Amino acid sequence: MKILFMGTPDIAAACLDALLSDGQQVVGVVTQADRPRGRGYTLTPPPVKVLAQEKGIPVYQPATLRDEAFAEILAVMDPDLIAVVAYGKILPSSVLRYPKHGCINVHASLLPKYRGAAPIQRAIMEGENVTGITTMYMEEGLDTGDMLLTEEIAIGATDDFGTIHDRMAEVGGRLLCQTIHAIADGTVVRRKQDDALATYAAKIEKADCHLDLTRSAAALDPYIRGLSPIPLSFVRCPDGKMLKIVRAEASEGRGAPGEVLALDDRGEGGILIACGEGALLLREIVPEGKGKMRAADFIRGRRLKIGEVLT
């Protein structure tokens, strides 16, 4: 089949690479526009574009999928199937109806749970111990189409967004290839989603990253892991500066929420701060305007004192 691939970030690039390694005929790639990145705001292409150009695949970055210009692009490529992985835009009905074998999507959750933009982060943040990949037919609703293949992925006690994302990328590419083979040979099985079991994984906003230290340490531990290594949760130091948290763990301790209970600058060390119940031991952090460092190194800079309060 002639396949049009639509995707943008690293997980999409991994799935595209799996398709190419599987020998699939990818006739074109549609991805988001290049974005400014880093401190210098350098215009940077998305990972899918980089891979497609390396492989000599035509790349399109339309501002909209709803105009005649994209309709002409679609007609020229004339795909039999469209595969979508984290593209970042809603597909209009004109695109969904175009390929004779439909549009399929790789979604990073066990649907119908965690429909929406941030399924990996939200599953970890909410303390789930299992998530997974679902391939599905696309329709006009948000991640509401018929499910095809699923595979579970365990979330361990130390897993964060980075580790689960990488496992998702490997499993997603493999399931996408299996799904396409099943469609091609007519053995694919469709399963309706139970809308009554659906939950929504909203996009991560800056407000989500500001930790509520009145919550228990046990609840904040997975919350921090779900936001690490990007975009990172944060608290505010007494001087108002942001302190991002890369790695932390639930511990014992009692005090006012945010109160610095102990400072240990030896070895692994850490900053122990009180929560609504229990305490968090901060191990790795990113101080405002600085790079990632061990909390022990931050302590040696004498930037905090026992009894001060982080907010």
Topology:
Layout lengths: L1 E6 L2 H12 L3 E6 L4 E3 L4 E3 L2 H8 L4 E2 L7 H10 L3 E5 L7 H4 L6 E5 L7 E2 L2 H7 L4 E8 L9 E8 L6 H25 L14 E2 L4 H4 L7 H10 L6 E4 L5 E10 L8 E5 L5 E5 L4 E9 L5 E2 H6 L11
Protein model, in words:
- This protein starts with a strand and ends in an 11-residue tail after the last helix.
- Strand 6 (about 80-85), helix 4 and strand 7 (about 105) form a beta-alpha-beta unit.
- It is about 30% helix and about 25% strand.
- The protein has helices spanning about 10-20, 45-55, 70-75, 95, 120-125, 160-185, 205-210, 215-225, 295-300, and strands at about 1-5, 25-30, 35, 40-45, 60, 80-85, 105, 115, 130-135, 145-155, 200, 235, 240-250, 260-265, 270-275, 280-285, 295.
- It has two domains: about 1-200, Formyl transferase, N-terminal domain (Rossmann fold), CATH 3.40.50.170; about 205-300, Formyl transferase, C-terminal domain (Methionyl-tRNA Fmet Formyltransferase, Chain A, domain 2), CATH 3.10.25.10.
- The longest helix has 25 residues, at about 160-185.
Which keywords apply here?
311 residues; seven-stranded mixed β-sheet; 2 domains; alpha/beta; 9 helices; six-stranded antiparallel β-sheet; 27% strand; Rossmann fold; Methionyl-tRNA Fmet Formyltransferase, Chain A, domain 2
